[in-house]
Amino acid sequence: MESLQIPYRAVVVGATGGLGAAFMQHLEQDPNCEQVIGLGRHSDPPVDLLDESSIERAAAWLREQAAEWDLILDATGILTIDGQGPEKRLRDLDPAVMARAFAINAIGPALLFKHLAPLLPRNRKGVLATLSARVGSIEDNHLGGWVSYRASKAALNQIVRTTALELRFSHRQAVVVALQPGTCATRLSEPYRSRAPEVLSPEYATGRLLDVLDRLDAEQSGSFHDFEGQRLPF
Ligand SMILES: NC(=O)c1ccc[n+]([C@@H]2O[C@H](COP(=O)([O-])OP(=O)(O)OC[C@H]3O[C@@H](n4cnc5c(N)ncnc54)[C@H](OP(=O)(O)O)[C@@H]3O)[C@@H](O)[C@H]2O)c1
Description:
Blueprint: E1 8-13, H1 18-29, E2 33-39, H2 52-65, E3 71-74, H3 95-116, E4 126-131, H4 147-170, E5 174-180, H5 202-215, E6 224-226
Parallel strand pairs: 1-2, 1-3, 3-4, 4-5, 5-6
Bound molecules: NADP nicotinamide-adenine-dinucleotide phosphate (NAP).
NADP nicotinamide-adenine-dinucleotide phosphate (NAP) is lined by residues 14, 16-20, 40-41, 47-50, 75-78, 104, 131, 133, 181, 183-184, 186-189.
């Protein structure tokens, strides 16, 4: 990336996922990136979104490595839960499945923001971005279905906006955004992508998303963008 301090430091949470691993690859190959740390349930230190203390410990560990981190990417998320795919209609709703979607897609990222946002630089551009999904857009919902995934991503979008507003004064150049990667060939989308108009490779989508993040500044903090840089409605 060109718009961050050179060299810059990056963290990817969910580094084992299809998109997280592709982000790691780009960042490892970027000569401007001095250090990139991949975190997840099996990293050292581990980060489990369902265990706040693991997030707190990882944040403290990152702080020991460096006082500030320029790029913090959350590439975690879930769609199929305990073998159950997204609901087609309301009668398929299972409260336990819905609660898990919220725990991983909304509350987990909120806890990441709580503990990792303080690591963003205070006096230069820093980016805190999370992978949301277009189907989380309320305005763009013309099909129905997938209520747990949609609602958990809509909640995530609200958490992004609220975090951006809170950081406005403490981290004036912070860019806090939700991203839509497009339908990508990963484990998460595998059972559902046969009807997608186009399926992107994780390498391509994450490369485009990093270009989008490079072009955003604090004025756009709190918004939602797709891999082509298009601003999406919440
Ligand atoms: N692929 C697409 O077409 C698409 C489209 C729109 C939006 N997205 C969004 O992009 C994000 C990444 O998706 P992906 O396609 O890369 O999926 P993926 O390959 O299934 O990766 C999901 C990642 O989330 C992590 N994760 C799940 N539960 C966790 C927990 N409790 N604690 C910590 N990490 C946890 C997984 O870790 P483990 O390896 O430990 O399981 C994995 O690293 C998701 O938020 C998804 O909603 C994807």
